[in-house]
Amino acid sequence: MHVTIPYVVAAALFGLGVHGVIRRRNAILVLMAVELMLNAVNLILVTADVAVRSALVGVPGEAWANPNSQAGSGGVFALFVIVLAAAEVGVGLAIVLQYYRMRKAVAIDEVPLADEVQE
Amino acid sequence: MTVADVLMIALGAVAVGSGTLVVTSAHLVRSGLYLVVSLGATAGLYLVLGAELVAWVQVLVYVGAVVVLLLFAVMLTRAPIGASAGLDRPAGPSALIGAGVGFGLAALFADAFRWIEYPRADPGTAERIGGEIFGTWVLPFEVLSILLLSALVGAIVLSRPDIGARRAPEQTPEEADEEVPA
Hints:
The complex is a heterodimer. By secondary structure, chain A is mainly α.
């Protein structure tokens, strides 16, 4: 298999995520674009697992983890990133909902800064 | 071109196409549903790449939990069902930056890996991933569980009005003073 294909797909997904984060005004849509970016990173990790493992046949893994380790843990890191994304979206949506309860709006470029709050 | 290549190209096209719709659609709910398609196609890519457990965790956590949470938030903020106006800033700068990042990374990867044929990965069983998590990466795993717990507690504290949250219109003078940097 040619690993260039998933790498290029991941790069395109990351670019789309950046585009969405900058362009969207709705906070929930910004969170969706962040999910796209995290997903692209996951794809890169899993693909690197495939590409690097075939180059590392016979190479011992991390020294601190002998004899239990193998070279190439991209899948494990992808799982960690998925868990981090779940935590991030939980806290992010709590903030968005609390802000909506206070101001009845979710447009992120209308968030007042500290000195405007006082008026 | 092997079967795996054709599958990866097809799934990648679906993922990128629906990803484009996620960041351009004018309907909030449709945006979330296109996100399901994009994440599902990525899960298919993981399957082709041999990371079976990651694919199913992706379906469970991302498609099952995260997207449902996002759609809940869309509905709790009383988003209109139809197309909403004023959802986007002007597209020029963001398209420039996004295309720059995407094409730059793609050129980097294409230059680094060229068109080299790699051997097909052995289907990664859950046993191997489990051995790695609870052998090599057990400390990050435990730290991650603490982080998840603190994120949960933080989300609960944030969304309960009776602990910690301040209501903006009825600020006491002391609180207002605290917020303004000297």
